[in-house]
Amino acid sequence: MHFxxxxxxxxxxxxxxxxxGALELASEQVARLCDRHFGIGxxxxxxxxxxASGGAAAYMHYINADGSLAEMCGNGVRxxxxxxxxxxxxxxxxxxxxxxxETLGGLKELVYDAAAADGAGAFSVNMxxxxxxxxxxxxxxxxxxxxxxxxxxxxLVEDFDFDLAQVGRIVENATAVxxxxxxxxxxxxxxxxxxxxxxxxxxxxxxxxxxxxxxAAVVACASAKLAERxxxxxxxxxxxxxxxxxxxxxxLSGPAEIVYEGEIEVA
Length: 267
Known about the structure:
globular, 17-stranded mixed beta sheet, Diaminopimelate Epimerase, Chain A, domain 1
């Protein structure tokens, strides 16, 4: 199997062309490919398939590292954008390009700015409208529930001096509160224009970045009047620019980079 490894602020993906939709990977195969010791290593696998919508450049079939199917991945959409541009599948306009990617969470529109991110280029994606689901409680933790459209639970923290894996795992699996399980964002408000975030992703564990999680964090903080609607979010893998726009949709911007290509036997 030919693959391309792509990272977007540290969220890394195995990109595979599967335009006919013929590649079916079992959960065990996905876990093995995503394993950082015995496989390629990634937060998930993206299979590029032919979209049902004639207005999209590709359909993104995204599978988490544990083999579970995800509705959406903001950094994954930007990684798809990077791949499509690099493969010449997108006609570049002067200074960039505009196109759409189909996902289980709907059609996502991207803008590629070739001059952004110190010459590496950056991708902005319209993530659609968030759904605020109010405050939830897991044990003694107060959480703002937001769908982007995948589920998120945002917790405000003063610092990150705690066992994130332990707390993240408890919240993710609190199915009495979050029936579909949930992604968990731990957010420290630096000022109204800057958030710091660490994330525990559903089906993956702690990752260096989460695009939909950063969007959920800004929506939660802006709703609570703790942040503006246009905010920079610092994650372990870099910085993302989030804007909760006047039309209620959320824009996610940041770089995406091809790391390497290769061949691997799928057992």
